[in-house]
Design a protein that fits this description.
Helices cover 39% and strands 32% of the residues. By secondary structure, it is an alpha+beta fold. The chain has an eight-stranded antiparallel beta sheet with strand order 4-3-2-1-5-6-7-8. It starts with a strand and ends with a helix.
């Protein structure tokens, strides 16, 4: 079992509407801490992390100082240096950093990573094996030489990856085990628009978003004729995803050879759904059900309209008949009055 601590930092210049510095801290891809230097916010995103900061005010003070004082200055100075190096002046400029460690509980192996990006493109990477920087563009070679020569920075990074990150990761795991290890299994179903459409294996309501869904044939994962979808959020903080299977070349007798598999991190057993026509939900069934449900209402409305039309016809006929009789009576007495009455 592996656990990962990741830090995403972003510094900006040239736009007062964007925070000059912010960071997000994640443990096992779950957001645990958020900082915004412009709004003076350091906010725990999990109940266990809030308790951790309450029990360790020193840790809260450290994160607050890094967010409000140290990091904004470092990012702004770095952006200024990069603008000068690349002969840039005005406009919006963004410096991003992703740094963290992954720890394998079984083997004890630790992997670290550090990547820098500038204005949406790769800038530098740090190689932990050689403890040197790798420029991702030729124009950053001069930056590499300068940073490789900064032994204080190299030593700090060694301590950061070897000790500090691991201590923080273990602390987050200890306090946030209930929320970080939370798992919710999904509802998995087979969907199809028409008999000739692909069959979609759809899983919804799962947590966390570290999940996989795929089609198998004879127990082996397949990729041909398969169209995987993205993991999407639901309104209740759970997630959904799907994977489509093109069945145009699958013969009826081969359907039993296919199944859909859903896997969720932290859960040992997979959810397996066999490709079976009897359990596929289609629009045709839904539409038929919808029509069947509305048919009595439609009939009742039609009958009501028919009754109203007949009633109006009867009333009109009676009025017309009375008017004719009345006109005839008046005609016998006065032809002029008869004309006026018929107009009415």
């Amino acid at each position: 079992v592996s656990h990962m601590l990741k830090y995403f930092g972003t510094g900006t210049s040239g736009n007062p509407d964007i925070a000059e510095f912010m960071f997000v801290l994640e443990v096992d891809d779950t957001e645990v801490l958020y900082c915004d230097a412009s709004k003076k916010i350091v906010e725990p995103r999990q109940d266990g992390v809030k308790k951790m900061l309450d029990d360790n005010p020193g840790a809260l003070g450290e994160y607050t100082q890094e967010c409000f004082e140290h990091q904004p200055g470092i990012y702004q100075n770095s952006i200024s240096n990069l603008k000068q190096l690349l002969n840039q002046s005005g406009g919006v400029h963004i410096l991003q950093c992703m740094i963290g460690s992954e720890m394998n509980e079984n083997s004890g192996e630790v992997k670290g990573f550090l990547q820098l990006g500038y204005n949406g493109e790769g800038y530098l990477e740090f190689d932990l094996k050689t403890m040197t920087w790798i420029p991702l563009k030729p124009e950053f070679n001069i930056v590499k030489q300068t940073m490789d020569g900064d032994r204080n920075l190299i030593n700090y990074l060694g301590n950061l990856f070897g000790t500090i990150f691991l201590e923080r990761l273990k602390m987050f795991l200890d306090y946030g085990s209930s929320s970080l290890n939370k798992t919710v299994l999904p509802s998995v179903s087979l969907l199809q628009k028409t008999p000739s459409s692909p069959v979609s294996c759809h899983a919804t309501g799962f947590y966390p978003d570290r999940a996989a869904i795929f089609w198998r044939k004879d127990g082996v994962e397949i990729h041909e004729g398969v169209d995987p979808g993205e993991i999407l959020p639901n309104n209740d903080e759970t997630f959904q995803m799907n994977v489509d299977l093109n069945i145009s070349s699958v013969t009826p007798e081969d359907w039993r050879r296919y199944d859909c598999v859903f896997q969720l991190s932290g859960v040992s057993e997979d959810i397996i759904i066999k490709l079976n026509k009897t359990i596929i939900k289609t629009n045709l069934v839904n539409n038929k059900t919808h029509i069947d449900a509305e048919l009595p209402i439609i009939i009742a409305a039609f009958v009501l309209v028919l009754i109203i039309i007949v009633a109006i016809g009867i009333v009109a006929y009676k009025k017309k008949k009375a008017a004719v009789q009345y006109s005839v009576t008046l005609f016998l007495r006065n032809t002029q009055i008869k004309f006026n009455c018929q107009i009415f």
